[in-house]
C-alpha cells in the first residue's frame, strides 16, 4: 500500500511525497486507517518501523478535515519521554506542516519557562512536549486543554517507568471529554502496568500489534560477550570501537558518571567521542545531539536517556557496555540500529554485575542468548548459578542454627561469646563470598525530563 491509497488530504499527501518513501510500513498500513476512524488505539511494532508517521498522519488528517472543538486550545498534544525524542518527533511533524495553516510548538524541560509560556499564549494548534514540563504549564494555567481532540503518547511505557503517571493523569483529566481520541505507541506495550494505565485513559481501544516485542529483529545482529571485570570490558570495548566497519556507534552505560569517564578514556585513544547524559544543560544536550547526528563524532556514550525512539540512520553499532536493568530497554537500546530496513549490530558486554540483568533479558525474550568470543580477550567468567530459592536458604539457616547449638553445647562456657557477638548468632555460616568486582560504582538513576 502507498500513502496515495489512504483517503487523506492532498496537502498532506504532497508533504509525504517529499519524504520519498516507496510505500507504507506494516504498522502504518494498519494503524493509520484505524486511527482515522477516531477510535482510541494501542499500537506496537518493532523499533525503526515508522511509528512516528503512523500517528502524525492521522493527527494531521484530523486537523485538516474536521472543525476545531475550541478556537483557543491546542487540538493535538504529543508527549514523549525524553527531550531528544520529543525534538525528533517535532522535526518530523514540521515536515508535514508545510502546506497547511497549522502552528506547532515544542515544549521541553530544561528550556526557558517564560518563553514557553509566551509561545503557548499564541495558541499553537499542535503541542509536542515532555510530560513534566507540560504539566508544569498546566498548573501555571499557561494553557488549557479542555478542547484537546487528540492525545498521543509515544513510548508511553517509558513515561510510566520514569514516574510520569501523575502528570499524564492530570493532562488526561483536563482534556477528558467524549470527543477526545487517544493513541498510544511503543515497541513494548504488553505490560501489566501499561494495560492498567491504558484502561483509565483510553476508551475501548483498538489494538494493533505488528509482531511481538520479543520477536527477533531480523535486521539487528545481536552479539554477546562475557567479561571478567571493568578492565576486561574496556579492552573489549576498544576492540569493537576499532572495527573498520563501524559507521557511528552508540555505547550505553549504566550511570551518568560512566558516560563521561568512558568518553574521556576513548577520546584519549584518538577516537572522536561525545557523552550525553541528563546531567548536562539543555544547550549542551542540543549541541551534542546536533554534532552526533551530523556525523561530527563517531561515538556517542550515553545512558537509557537515549534508548528510546532516536532515529539516527548512520548508527551501525550499539554497544551495551553495561546491561540495562529493565529488559524492555534492551529491545529499545539495540533498536537504535537496524532502522527502516537497514542492518545493524548490537554488542552486549556481560560481566558478573550484569548477570542477573542478562538473565532477566533472556527470560523476557523467552530465548537463550549465546555468547561469542574474541580471540585474545577470552576471560574466566562463565556466568553465575541462579540465586537459591527462599525455602532452601531458610533450610540452610535452620541447619546452621542447629550446628551452632551443637557447637555451643560441645565447647561449653569458655566459648560462649563467639556466636553472641554476631547478629543473628550464625554469622560465619552465612558469610557470603566476596562480591565480584563491580563494573560501576552507583546504580543507574532515571533521567527525569
Ligand atoms: P519507530 O518509531 O517505529 O522506531 P520511526 O518513526 O522513528 O520508527 O521511523 C524510523 C525511520 O523510518 C525514520 O527514519 C523514518 O523517516 C523512516 N520511515 C518512516 N516511514 C517510512 C516508510 N513508509 N518507508 C520508509 N521509511 C520510513
Ligand atoms: Mg518511535
User: What's the alpha carbon Rg, rounded to whole Å?
Assistant: 26 Å
- Counting DSSP H or I runs of 4 or more residues, the number of helices is 17
pLDDT averaged residue by residue: 89
- Helix-strand category: alpha/beta
Helix content: 40-55%
> Which runs of at least 5 residues are low in confidence (pLDDT < 50)?
413-446
Outline type:
globular
CATH-scheme architecture of the largest domain: 3-Layer(aba) Sandwich
Helix/strand order: HHEHEHEHEHEHHEHEEHEHEHEEHEHHHH
- Number of separate strands: 13
What is the beta-strand fraction? 5-15%
Q: Mind telling me the CATH class of the largest domain?
A: Alpha Beta
CATH fold field value of the largest domain: Rossmann fold
At the fourth level of CATH, the homologous superfamily of the largest domain is P-loop containing nucleotide triphosphate hydrolases
How would a crystallographer describe the biggest sheet? Answer: 7 strands, parallel
- Total separate domains: 2
Strand numbers in spatial order across the main sheet: 3-4-2-5-6-1-7
Bound molecules: adenosine-5'-diphosphate, magnesium ion
Q: In angstroms, what separates the terminal alpha carbons?
A: 38 Å
Secondary-structure blueprint:
Blueprint: H1 10-19, H2 26-36, E1 41-45, H3 51-65, E2 76-79, H4 83-97, E3 104-107, H5 113-121, E4 126-129, H6 131-139, E5 150-154, H7 156-161, H8 165-174, E6 181-186, H9 192-201, E7 206-210, E8 220-226, H10 230-241, E9 248-252, H11 256-268, E10 273-276, H12 282-293, E11 299-302, E12 315-320, H13 327-334, E13 344-350, H14 355-365, H15 390-411, H16 417-420, H17 427-430
Helix pairs in contact: 2-3, 3-4, 6-8
